[in-house]
């Protein structure tokens, strides 16, 4: 059960309803997850949903790799709802089931695609060390140019904020769904370095 109430369409202020309607009319099609909490501050919710929509649906890095970075973040933060939504999105975007399963278990995923390996390591390093090694940073920046490396970093930061919001407010899973992630220890999950096949 959530720690805070969520505004419903019939109880929303006009400002909340305007943001709600914009989210429903956009590519998400539904208000879920952290936006349910953010609606308590319509101005925050509006900016949040626009940033999230851009990063998830419009940034220059391909969808498969965006979703990979998101599930790495979900696993790091043990964010149940984020994992539930984005593991499915990663499958639909073409990420291998073996990679998704390894991340789910907290094991080292094996990558055939060097772009996937680099995105995984980038997301892993920035969240575990607070830094990205110089060679890795250069590879990502050369592959997707400054635009892509800036967007990838913002995507990981954005989904960290999403994870924190989901966890802090205990935003529930859809009815009938069980938590998909088991704890990998106390606190944030440690992520194993990736490996090439």
Low-confidence stretches: none
**Shape annotation:** globular
- Strands of the widest sheet, in order across it, are 1-2
Average per-residue pLDDT, rounded, comes to 94
Number of helices: 8
Q: Number of DSSP strands? A: 2
Secondary-structure arrangement, i.e. CATH architecture of the largest domain = Up-down Bundle
**Strand/helix succession:** HHHHHHEHHE
Broad structural category: mainly alpha
CATH topology of the largest domain: AhpD-like
Radius of gyration: 17 Å
Beta-strand content: under 5%
The N- and C-terminal alpha carbons lie at a distance of 42 Å
How helical, in percent, are the residues? 55-70%
Number of domains: 2
CATH domain class of the largest domain:
Mainly Alpha
Largest sheet: 2 strands, parallel
CATH superfamily of the largest domain: AhpD-like
Please provide a written account of the structure:
- By secondary structure, the chain is mainly alpha-helical.
- The protein folds into 2 domains: 14-57, no CATH class; 63-196, AhpD-like (Up-down Bundle), CATH 1.20.1290.
- The chain has helices at 14-25, 34-38, 42-57, 63-77, 80-92, 97-105, 114-128, 134-168, and strands at residues 110-111, 195-196.
- A two-stranded parallel ribbon has the order 1-2.
- The longest helix has 35 residues, at 134-168.
Question: Main attributes?
Answer:
2 strands, mainly alpha, single chain, AhpD-like, 197 residues, 2 domains, globular
């Amino acid at each position: 059960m959530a720690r805070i109430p969520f505004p419903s369409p019939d109880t929303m202020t006009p400002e909340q309803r305007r943001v709600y309607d914009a989210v429903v009319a956009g590519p998400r099609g539904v208000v879920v997850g952290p936006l349910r909490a953010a609606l308590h501050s319509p101005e925050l919710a509006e900016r949040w949903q626009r940033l999230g929509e851009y990063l998830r649906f419009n940034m220059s890095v391909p969808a498969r790799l965006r979703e990979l970075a998101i599930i790495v973040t979900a696993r790091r933060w043990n964010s149940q709802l984020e994992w539930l939504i984005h593991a499915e999105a990663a499958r639909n975007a073409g990420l291998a089931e073996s990679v998704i399963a390894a991340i789910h278990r907290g094991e080292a995923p094996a990558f055939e695609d060097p772009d996937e390996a680099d995105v995984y390591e980038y997301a892993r390093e920035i969240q575990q060390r607070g830094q990205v090694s110089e060679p890795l940073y250069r590879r990502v920046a050369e592959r997707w140019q400054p635009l892509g490396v800036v967007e990838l970093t913002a995507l990981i930061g954005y989904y960290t904020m999403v994870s924190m919001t989901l966890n802090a407010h205990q935003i529930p899973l859809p009815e009938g769904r069980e938590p998909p992630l088991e704890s990998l220890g106390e606190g944030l999950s440690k992520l194993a370095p990736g490996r090439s096949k």
